[in-house]
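Researcher: Good morning. I'm working through a list of sequences from a screen, and I'd like to move beyond sequence-only analysis. For each chain I'm collecting a predicted structure so we can compare shapes side by side. This is the next one on the list. No need for commentary yet; just the structure.
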Amino acid sequence: MVTVTISPAGRFPALAPKLPISLVLGEKTLENATVADVKQAIAAQFPKFYPERQKLSLKGDRKALLDDDTLAKIGFESGGELNVKDLGPQVGWRTVFLVEYVGPIIVHPLFYYFPRLFYGGEVQHSLLQKYCLGLVLLHFIKREYETVFVHRFSKATMPFRNIFKNSFHYHVLGGILLAFDLYRPKYAAFSPAVLGTKRDQLSFLWFWSAIFIFAELSNLKTHLILRSLRPEGTRKRAVPHGYGFNLVSCPNYFFESLAWFALSMMTGSYAAWLFFFAGSAQMAQWAVKKHKAYRKEFGSEYPKDRKAMFPFVF
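Model: Good morning. C-alpha cells for this chain:
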C-alpha cells in the first residue's frame, strides 16, 4: 500500500481547494503504481480536476512527471509528497488539428469564388490562381484526413487556450492573408504580373506543382511510418527508419516546408513566402526538440549522422 501527500505547486488550484491531502493507492506498490494512478486518485477526490488538467512533479521540482513512470522509477518513497499544478481547461489534440486546418479550406474558396466581396469587383482567374487553389486545398484536406485516419497522439489533450494561438497561423497567415494575396487582381489572367511571363506557362506551373505534390505525398509517407511505430492506445516510441528518416529526424517537417517553398516559388507571393518562413521556423524549433529527445531516449541506438530537419545541413 502506497501513501502520497498531494500539495499545490504555487497557488491553490481552484478545482482542488482542500489541498494538501493524503491519498492511499489501494493495493498498489511503488513498483507498479504509476504517476497516472496518482492523477486518477486526485480526480476521484476532485472530479472536475480531471487527470489531463494535472501536472505532477516531485516536491520542489518543476519538471513534469510522465504518466507511465512508476513511483519507484521517479525515486518516490511511500509517505512522500508530490506537487500538483492546474494546467487549465483542456481540449483534444485531434480536435485542435481539425479546427486549425478547416480554416483555410473555407477561406480560400471564399476569396476565389466571391472576389467582389473582397476586391470590389470580379476577377478573371489565371491558370496560376486555379493551380494555387487546387494545391492549397489538397494540402489542408490531406491534413484533415491524416488527423482523422493517420495520426496517433502521444498526449490526449493540450491547454484550450492553445487552440487560438495555433489557429492563428493557419486561419490568418495560411487562410486570410494567403488567400487575399493569391486571388487578387495582381495575379489575374490579364495582369502584367502573369500575362506573357513564366507564371503563364504550363511547363513552369507543372514543374512547381509536381514538386508540391511530391512533397505532400512524401509527407504522408513519413506520417504513415510514424503511425506504424506506435500501436493504437499506447505511447510507445521507437527509432524511425526509411524514407527520409535515414537523413533527418523529422522528414515530415522537411517535406511540408518543401511544399510551401514550391508554392512560393510558383507564385512569388509575399504572403506565400511569409507563410513558408513562419512555418519553417516553427517546424525547425520542433525538429530540434524532437532530435534531442530521440538522442536522449535512444542513446547509442540512434544514428549519429542524422540531422534534425534539413538533410546534410541542420
